[in-house]
Predict the structure.
Amino acid sequence: MKIIIAGGGIGGLVAAISLHNAGHDVNVFESTKEVKALGVGINLLPHCVRVLDNLGLLNDLKAISIETKELVYANRHGQFFWEEPRGVYAGYKWPQFSIHRGEFQMLLWNKAVELLGDDSLHPGHHISSFEQNENGVTAHFIDKDTEDIIHTEKGDLLIGADGINSQIRKLLYPNEGPVAYSGNVLYRGTAVMKPFLTKASMAMIGSLHQKMVVYPIKDTFNENGNQLINWVANLKGGLGETLTERDWNRQVDKKQLLEKYANWKYDWLDVAQMIENSNTGIFEFPMSDRDPLDRWSFNRVTLLGDAAHPMYPIGSNGASQAILDVDELTNCLNQFNSLSEALNKYDSVRIEATAKVVHQNRKKGPDIILDLMEDRFPDGFTPDEIPHEELETLMEKYKKIAGFDKETLNAKS
Ligand SMILES: Cc1cc2nc3c(=O)[nH]c(=O)nc-3n(C[C@H](O)[C@H](O)[C@H](O)COP(=O)(O)OP(=O)(O)OC[C@H]3O[C@@H](n4cnc5c(N)ncnc54)[C@H](O)[C@@H]3O)c2cc1C
């Protein structure tokens, strides 16, 4: 089958590799003219690492990321109340990786070039419109700067993997309106600094009113023993005037953020110093999502990743769910001779699965335990006050909903 993918981000590139391996003729059209390592850290959970392993990417991934050993939760006073091993350290067959999003995208881009050939990847091609009939789909691409039509491509299937501001989704749902803003703003940055805890720990600190997520994204250390650490601050209401349009690349000054976190200094981590040391830009991102759709596939056109199910980046699921979409779409196209049957199955499996994650993330996802502890013990707690069983029930529930409870996942090949 001749497949056109609009969007050379994480979902689009994994789809290109997977569908090429399944024997399809794939072309990827990416809006940006020069694909660069943009973004900061993301996490790849064991359920999507399984898919990447099956695509032969495990060793490449290991070379540029760090295997997350544990997840810890602490209150804003720095007291721990939840610690759990992650990935293979928790008995999963596959690791959890913390990785620089842009470096991961570059790895996928280079792998796609190697497998599909340079002339199957087309940077600088922004999809503007498409039309389809029973014989095929035709996609039109513009140069985003000049808005001139520069290319037209015909195929059997068009996949919209064009991210949170998807043009294909807009064409399929012209009346959908803007994204739903959560009232929270994320500030993301990286710092080269002293490692903390196991040197491969992920820490969630505070409450959803004011939170900080911290984890290393490199398993290497410079001559001073320092490591590249990624952080994401979550502030209710943000730092003042916040644009609600979702743009991953908007930067802010660190001064105001520093004031908010000035007292967050613990014997295991100095949050204020970490923000101070962040010299590669601080990126502001209003946390928003969209209501789940009833349908992603319309004859020869379908959606995947953030284009299909933009969700709050809570619980490390943004990239992971896009990769699970790819796995299901490839399986469905393998399983059915009829495209419409394949896409019906893809819709029925993935819409329900991702809608649950969207809704659960609106209810704070696993971070609900931060608010539980803040509400009950605003001034701190003694060790015997920690409600371990209650916390465990909440954490296990999220894993099941997001599809990465250990028993179910380890039973898969
Ligand atoms: C620059 C950038 C930085 C990011 N930083 C982070 C981060 O720090 N933390 C985090 O959790 N998530 C980040 N994300 C989002 C994260 O990558 C996605 O949530 C997740 O990987 C799902 O992947 P996706 O392929 O659906 O979307 P994305 O990875 O966002 O990919 C979408 C791709 O489509 C391209 N595109 C957009 N419109 C068109 C069009 N009309 N025609 C053709 N191509 C188009 C975009 O340029 C992009 O390459 C970032 C995304 C981007 C684009």
The mean pLDDT is 93. The domain at 2-36+102-178+293-362 is CATH 3.50.50.60 (FAD/NAD(P)-binding domain). The longest helix spans residues 339-362. The two ends are 26 Å apart (CA to CA).
